[in-house]
Design a protein that fits this description.
heterodimer; A: mainly alpha; 80% helix; 1% strand; elongated; B: alpha+beta; three-stranded antiparallel beta sheet; 5 helices; 3 strands; 19% strand
Chain lengths: 201, 100
């Protein structure tokens, strides 16, 4: 049997246990890149539908392309992961969000009911507010809950503002909650990776 | 003076302790994830995981994802118990070291 050890060694063993358990519990899948990717996809779709050719294809093509790219990167990353109950809970929120948006908006578009920009922005922002809000509460991440508040504000404002103003509000929300938040998340992840020391036997 | 507890030698190794602690915080973990977290080589990691598996502290599942082999590790109830007992023993030893 192994001991005695000095006080410093004992503390080092306890610290090792604490830090390893904390690392395991930390959200193990890194999804900040997806926020940036989807933020850029929304912006490309908006720009294409405003100034490009074949504008009817703008949203379907960019959303399907972003969806495929997300699936491809996620499938590749799924070979290197640990699964936690928290990870599954947050993942299920975003999966359900994606399915909802991929069903509702094409259905509205193809049926000819997607005629009001206000409604589109209100519904899209509302759904994104819900997903960010639930995810932020689960992860106890104030920055993400802040994003939810921005999306909810965009949803409400799009109901009362003019069309162009609503579009500006939507673009600001995309910039803050996808691009800025995504880059912030990626920076945190990269800092976490650098701070993590290797364990040697 | 109370008798000092013994430390479980299987749990005591730094790498094995790190692996058990990592697995205690997740439902399941892939070999490559554990390698990334511990900074270990494949050979050393495999050997330490085998010792934990032989002690009944972890379970192993092999499967294929996207045609690539994936090895998943989970901590068992026995492993969780061993880790808890190890922490208790460390705390007891630390208490006696501070008193001394």
């Amino acid at each position: 049997m192994q001991h005695p050890m000095d006080e410093q060694e004992l503390k080092a063993q306890l610290n090792l246990i604490e830090s390893m358990i904390a690392q395991g519990r930390r959200t193990t899948e890194h999804w900040s890149w997806a926020f940036v990717l989807w933020g850029l996809a929304y912006m490309v779709a908006i720009a294409w539908s405003a100034w490009g050719h074949s504008t009817a294809l703008a949203w379907p093509v960019t959303m399907v392309a972003a969806g495929l790219l997300t699936w491809f990167i996620a499938a590749r990353d799924s070979l290197q992961k640990a699964e936690t109950t928290m990870g599954r809970a947050v993942g299920s929120i975003w999966l359900a969000t994606g399915i909802t948006m991929f069903l509702v908006f094409p259905a509205l578009g193809f049926s000819g009911h997607m005629v009001d920009t206000h409604v589109f922005i209100a519904v899209a922002s509302g759904i994104l507010g819900l997903a960010n809000g639930a995810s932020g509460v689960l992860l106890r991440w104030r920055a993400q809950f802040g994003c939810a508040v921005v999306w909810w504000a965009a949803s409400v404002l799009s109901c009362v503002l003019g069309e162009n103003q609503s579009l500006v509000v939507f673009l600001v929300a995309i910039f803050l909650c996808n691009i800025v938040f995504g880059i912030y998340g990626m920076t945190r992840e990269s800092r976490g990776r650098r701070a993590r020391g290797a364990v040697h036997a | 003076m109370p008798e000092l507890p013994d430390l479980n030698p299987v749990v005591h190794g730094k790498m094995r302790l790190a692996l058990l602690s990592l697995l205690a915080g997740v439902d399941e973990a892939e070999f490559t994830w554990l390698r990334g977290k511990t900074g270990s080589t494949d050979g050393n990691l495999g050997a330490q995981l085998l010792k934990l598996e032989e002690a009944g502290y972890i379970s192993v599942e092999k499967r294929f994802v996207l045609r690539k082999p994936q090895t998943l590790y989970r901590i068992t109830e026995q492993g969780r118990q061993a880790l808890m007992e190890y922490v208790q023993a460390l705390k007891q030893l630390l208490g006696s070291a501070i008193e001394a």
